[in-house]
Amino acid sequence: MFVQGGTLGLPEAFEDVFEEPAGGPRITAYRNYLIESLKIAGFNAAKATSMADASIAIDRALHAAKLPPVEANDPSKINNARTLAQLQTELPNLNLRKILGGLRFEEPDHLILMEPRYLPTLSKVLAERPIQDIRDYVKLRVILAYSPYLSSDFDKPLIGLNEGLVGVSVLPSQEERALDIIKGRFGQPVSRLYSDSFFPPETRRQAAEMVGLIKEAFQVRMPNRKWLSDATRSAATDKLNALSFWIGYPDEWVDYSSVEITPDLVSSLVSIARFDYERMRQKLGKPWVTEHFNNSHTLPIVVNAAYDPQINGFEVPVAIIQAPMFDAQSDPAVNFCRMGAVLGHEMTHGFDWTGKQFDKTGNMKNWWTPKDSAAFDALAGLLITQANEYEFLPGSRTATGAQQVGENMADLGGITLAHAALRKYLALHPEKDVVIDGQTQDQRCFLAWAQFWAWQGKDEALRSQVARDAHPPNAYRATAPLRHLDAFYKAFGIRPGDPMWLAPEKRVEAW
Ligand SMILES: [Zn+2]
């Protein structure tokens, strides 16, 4: 059983707002949102203000106790085994037996405490704050959770919050929001309809062929990775051979037909939540079964792909196997260097700081020697230096290279493998190695990659991303990794002194 940190009043991507001093623009926007929402819910202005302030104080304390992003991504920091009795002594003000009983969970022998400071801090907050503050906090969280479904009166404070946090002052239409609820709560049934309608078997076949070639490109390159020791290289080869992937949609879909849906939106949402909770509870204590394409970021309707180190495999949802990422009618360069590169990116996550801590069957066991780790870190150091030299917004250069190096390393691996797989594909299908619009397949490969990252957003959103996200801004991803590939220099005849030139000693070739 895993014990995570709880959610706070703002989504995780915006939790850095809780570090902003009182009176700062974003924390003020959040405070106003709380006060106005509470007033709509029926509290008078004085009570709404005191509830908002207490809630922010509690969330500040809990946020400060969470692991910072770099540590939260480090399996060695989040894998803290405890017995129930041990954990209970660390949390004197939380009655774990009672909580587990309330959840109808059996008592586990061991728990994995993923946030080592969060729960002890929660225990302290519970003891130190007046009980009325805790009651108010819980009330407020329930109101916020259901406010989008209760009345459009709550739209106004939400718009104010969005303006403050992401600079956007319109909400999606009612229709779009209704669709989002259905996608969010009935992910699998909607995915099933979508897959049946938009995913012909021929597309699935082509995508599977491409993934196979990318894996093969990785296998071909493995013996030439000079920085790896022989023992680790052979373990890496084993792990790569064992790596599995699933394309499109699951073999079995979750059956939601027993969920009671009524014209009452809130009660329907509660029924769905109860159904999901019960499914999760039924799994406790039973052997682990991987459910494919059934979490919020790998549903077939989601444009994403994700490697899971605990199964040494990854899922490629239908929605990413669609234009502009993948188009059965498109030329190979575009498909390989967009979707193929994303899949290569995912594969290399099995062979980085996360992947090295899990063996080929997904058990937590570091299979790298300290020497291999040091060699990889040295290569990564060059990527960190490269990223630290970028300024995404005036004054945003806060040395984010270390926070984002995992993703930057994966992007580099992804486009490298995609390009190698493209060359292999073109050797197998020479009739496809054609110049289009005056561009060779190599040129189109790198252009397709760069175009893939086109993005538009507000400075506020970019600022939060730079501060917290493990992924660098898209503008960086579009071009920075290409500067490490010899093939890129060749494709465009780039020479020393050109803006994209990176001195050879600063280039990285890891995978
Ligand atoms: Zn990644």
What report would you give on this structure?
31% of the residues are buried. A 3-stranded mixed sheet has the order 1-3-2. It has a 3-stranded mixed sheet with strand order 4-6-5, with helices on one face. It folds into 3 domains: 2-162, Neutral endopeptidase , domain2 (Neutral endopeptidase, domain 2); 199-253 and 292-506, Collagenase (Catalytic Domain) (3-Layer(aba) Sandwich), CATH 3.40.390; 255-290, no CATH class. It has helices spanning 25-40, 45-65, 69-72, 75-78, 84-90, 96-102, 118-128, 131-150, 155-166, 174-185, 187-198, 201-221, 230-242, 265-283, 332-348, 370-388, 401-428, 441-452, 459-468, 474-479, 486-492; strands at 2-3, 80-83, 110-113, 244-248, 306-308, 313-317. The protein is mainly α. The radius of gyration is 25 Å and the shape is globular. Helix 10 crosses helix 11 (187-198) and helix 12 packs across helix 15. It is 54% helix and 5% strand. The longest helix has 28 residues, at 401-428. Bound molecules: zinc ion. Zinc ion is lined by residues 345, 349, 407, 410. Residues 304-508 form the Peptidase M13 C-terminal domain. InterPro entries: MetalloPept_cat_dom_sf (IPR024079), Peptidase_M13 (IPR000718), Peptidase_M13_C (IPR018497), Peptidase_M13_dom_2 (IPR042089), Peptidase_M13_N (IPR008753).
How would you describe this structure in keywords?
binds zinc ion, Collagenase (Catalytic Domain), 3 domains, mainly alpha, 6 strands, three-stranded mixed β-sheet, 511 residues, Neutral endopeptidase, domain 2, 21 helices
